Each structure stands twice: as C-alpha cells, then as structure tokens.
C-alpha cells in the first residue's frame, strides 16, 4: 500500500514555478536592502562609545591624560567639547553624499544591468563600512579619514534603492502592491535592528568590529546577488504581471484588460514586459524633467524630504538620546532603540494595507504624519519615565514616523514610476524612484545635522524641530489628499446612482 504524498511535498507543489521565482526575488531583494541598512546603523550605536564620561572607569597604569580629564577613554578627535558637531559632521558626510549620488544613481540604474550594478555597489559598501571600523585597529584619530570614508560609502550606497524597487516593480503588478511592498519594506527596520544588535556586541570593547562584521556580511551578500539576481521575469521564461491596460484605461483597476502586449498598441509597464525580449521595443530612458511632470512626483518628493528628516534623525540620534536622557548603557540604549524599528515594521505593513483598501496613498500618509506629531511630543515628555512607557512610545512613534516614509519610497514610487501617462515606459521607474528618494535624502542629511547643532541647547528643541518637520510633510500632501477625497465622493455618487437604477 502506497503512502499519501508527504505534506511538505504537497506544500511545494501547491505553488507554481512563477510563484517560486517571484517569492525568491522578493526574498533576495529583501536581504539585499537589509544589508544596506544594517551597514548604516552601527555609527548611531558607537557614538556613545566615541565620546563618554570616563570618570567612573578605572584608568590604565600607562595613561598619560591629566587627572581631571573625564574623557580619557573617548576616541579622539571625538573627545572634545564639540563632539556632537563632529559626530554630526560624520553623519552629514554620508547623508549629503547619499542625497547627491541618488539623483545620479537613477540615471545609471536605467542604463546598466541591475545585477552588476547592485553587486558592485554592495561590494564597495561592504569595503567602506569595514574601513571605518578598521580605523580603530589602525589607531586612526584624524577626522578627515572618517568623513572621507562616509562620503565614499554614501555614494556607493545609492546603488541600492532605485535598483531593488525597479527589480520588484518588474516582477509585481499593482493589485496588492501596497501590502506586498509594506511587508517587503520591513527590510529597512530589520536592517536597522540587525545593525544595532551586531554593533552592540562589540560597542563596549573593540568597537571597530561593529563596522567590520556588517561590512563583511554586506560584501558577501553582493557576491550572492551577482550569482542569483534575476532582473526580468521573461529572463527565466516566467509570466510577467498580468495586470495591464491601454493608456486610456486606469491602471489602478486590476480588472482592466487591454489587447495583446505585443500587438503594437501602447500598454503599461506590466504588459510591456510580456513581449519576448527580441521583439520588445526598448523605450528611451525618461529624462529628469519628464519624470518631474508625472502627477504627484513633486508633492510626494517634498513630503518625503521632511518625513525622512524625522526618520533619519531618530536613526542616527535615538541611541544617544536614550543614553543621555534615560541613562542606559551604550549597549542597552542601542538594543532599546531597535523598538523604534519594530514599530516601523508594523507601521509600514499597516500603511500599505490601508492604502490598498482605500486607494488613498496620500491620505494614509497624511493621517499617520498628523498623529505622529503629538506622539513625538509625548514620547519626549513621558517616554523616559519608565521602561514600559518607553517601550510603548517607541513602538508607536516608530510606526507613525516610518509608516508614511516606507509607503512613499515603495508603493508610491512604484505607482508613479508606472503611471498611465508614461504609456508603458518601464525606464521611468528607476528615475522616479531616484528623484523621490533623492529629495527625501536631502532631508535625511539635514535632520541629523540640525540635531547635532540643536542638541547642545537641549533635547526638547530637537523634538520641536522634528514636530515642525512632520507638520510640513503633511502640508505638502494637502492637494493630493483633496483629489483623493473628490475621487471617493465621485465613486460613492456613482455607486448610489447605480443602486437607484
């Protein structure tokens, strides 16, 4: 008597070949960008080690510092009174280079194979992340070395975001894009969490390993990317996303259908991908001005500028804030800060799910940003009064701050990069993504810099700055929110008219 099919095999057979490839691409791009963010996080954890109060530590017998020096255990040049400005300069070197490089990266991302582009970017990013940590083992105390390494790392890290969003956009249509990308975008928070935990292992000892280990993992992932990344479904004879329509039809309706993708009529990104590579006409890459003319690109870009300012200020300064205000150790502050990213995972999924259900990307972002402002105020005033309140407020603030940021950089960017006005020009996706994230990266550069300049006057002022930025992010979405409300009213009116017939 033959036994029934094993449950594991039955489960494997339940998914088609296309599903397995799509799942593997989603997982691979998830791991790729997890590594990018993992390599950015250690600097925020190590800050409290680069400058600390050494009065309670036992001095080594061969120490040459004066008896009254309370910063003898800090790492020069960050042992000076202006250490916050110096640490802010190190952050800003990375973020300014990243913001500038992002606008250029989209151009290269359209014209180079993504597999080569991503693999090279990850190898170089791993190298420069490791070089920052090697400054500890090489006993380097020159500010220009750390600034130069951060500039180089900022430039090469711009290879990541436009490439992974473009790759995911090639494989997935719009039907459940908000939810799928909301879950997928948790790589940002997962990378931050892993970076914090890895850095925390060595922060109180050989802090150079806090950078060398993430750098080595990132470089190894670059090699894996070169070996396994697939840019287009048709490269492995998979079926491209089926949701498509002619230019006159709304791409937001998953039930739209058009003529055959190779029939000569213009079609969307998804239908364009259905044509065999040898018969598919390759559209010209869209220029910068053309991408700006896509409805919604400017508004979402400016909104992201301020939303990312808030998010990256938390990314780079939250562990030091917890260390100074709540008086945890450097490792405990780094571990506790990961709860902000746990909230970011929840917020990203929630934002994607709600925006899919309501078809209101702008409204979802605006509501979450509006609620985030008072929550940040409460966190600063009551969040450090106990471990429980700190945990709850960190998760809530993380969800409300990172939810809109994640939605804009993923589903919104993919939506705008495949807008019906582009008539199927897939080349626009990388450019639009780079413009939106590049504009946001300007805010990411300004936020930590302002925090470094303002924090000596008190942490309250830093939070006031973040609240103002959050409100400005809301204001830039007002026009799009108004349009979405009008669309809902029109849909409701037509639905009522249909029922009365």
The Rg value, from CA coordinates, equals 24 Å
Largest sheet: none
How far apart, in Å, are the first and last alpha carbons?
A: 62 Å
Mean pLDDT: 80
The computed structural class is mainly alpha
Architecture in CATH?
Answer: Up-down Bundle
Q: If you consult CATH, what is the topology? A: Growth Hormone, Chain: A
CATH superfamily: MFS general substrate transporter like domains
**Number of domain modules:** 1
**Unreliable segments (pLDDT under 50, ≥5 consecutive)?**
243-283
Work out the strand percent: under 5%
Tell me the series of helices and strands, N- to C-terminal: HHHHHHHHHHHHHHHHHHH
User: What's the tally of helices?
Assistant: 19
Shape: globular
CATH class value: Mainly Alpha
Number of strands: 0
- Helix fraction, binned, reads over 70%
How is this structure best described in words?
- With 501 residues, this protein is mainly α.
- The chain has one domain (19-52, 78-231, 294-500): Up-down Bundle (Growth Hormone, Chain: A).
- It is 70% helix and 0% strand.
- The protein contains 19 helices and no strands.
- α4 (83-111) packs antiparallel against α17 and α15 (361-382) packs antiparallel against α16.
């Amino acid at each position: 008597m033959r036994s029934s099919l094993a449950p594991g095999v039955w489960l494997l057979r339940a998914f088609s070949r296309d599903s397995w490839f799509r799942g593997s691409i989603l997982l691979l791009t998830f791991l790729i960008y997890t590594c990018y963010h993992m390599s950015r996080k250690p600097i925020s954890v190590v800050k409290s080690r680069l400058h600390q109060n050494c009065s309670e530590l036992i001095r080594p017998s061969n120490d040459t510092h004066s008896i009254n020096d309370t910063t003898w255990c800090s790492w020069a040049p960050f042992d000076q009174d202006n250490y916050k400005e110096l640490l802010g300069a190190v952050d800003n070197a990375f973020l300014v280079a990243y913001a500038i490089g992002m606008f250029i990266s989209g151009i290269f991302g359209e014209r180079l194979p993504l597999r080569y582009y991503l693999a090279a970017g990850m190898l170089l990013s791993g190298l420069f992340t490791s070089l920052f940590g090697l400054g500890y083992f090489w006993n380097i105390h020159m500010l220009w070395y750390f600034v130069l390494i951060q500039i180089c790392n900022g430039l090469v890290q711009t290879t990541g975001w436009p490439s992974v969003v473009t790759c995911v956009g090639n494989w997935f249509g719009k039907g459940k894009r908000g939810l799928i990308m909301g879950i997928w975008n948790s790589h940002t928070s997962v990378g931050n969490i892993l970076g914090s935990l890895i850095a925390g292992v060595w922060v109180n000892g050989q802090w150079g390993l806090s950078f060398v280990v993430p750098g080595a993992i990132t470089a190894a992932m670059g090699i894996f990317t070169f070996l396994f990344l697939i840019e287009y479904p048709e490269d492995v004879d998979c079926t491209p996303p089926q949701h498509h329509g002619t230019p006159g039809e709304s791409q937001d309706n998953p039930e739209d259908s058009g003529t055959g993708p190779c029939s000569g009529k213009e079609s969307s990104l998804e239908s364009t991908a259905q044509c065999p590579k040898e018969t598919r006409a390759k559209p010209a890459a869209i220029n910068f001005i053309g991408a700006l003319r896509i409805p919604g690109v400017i508004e979402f870009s400016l909104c992201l500028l301020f939303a990312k300012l808030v998010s990256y200020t938390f990314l780079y300064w939250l562990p030091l804030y917890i260390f100074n205000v709540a008086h945890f150790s450097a490792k405990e502050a780094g571990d506790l800060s990961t709860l902000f990213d746990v909230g970011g995972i929840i917020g990203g999924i929630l934002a994607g799910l709600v925006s899919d259900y309501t078809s209101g990307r702008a409204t979802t972002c605006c509501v979450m940003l509006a609620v985030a402002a008072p929550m940040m105020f409460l966190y600063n005033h009551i969040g450090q009064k106990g471990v429980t309140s700190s945990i709850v407020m960190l998760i809530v603030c993380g969800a409300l701050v990172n939810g809109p940021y994640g939605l804009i950089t993923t589903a919104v960017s993919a939506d705008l990069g495949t807008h019906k006005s582009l008539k199927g020009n897939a080349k626009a996706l990388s450019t639009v993504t780079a413009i939106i994230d590049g504009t946001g990266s300007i805010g990411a550069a300004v936020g930590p810099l302002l925090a470094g300049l303002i924090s000596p006057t008190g942490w309250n002022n830093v939070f006031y700055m973040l609240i103002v930025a959050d409100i400005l992010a809301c204001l830039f979405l007002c026009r799009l929110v108004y349009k979405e409300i009008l669309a809902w009213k029109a849909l409701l009116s037509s639905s009522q008219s249909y029922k009365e017939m």
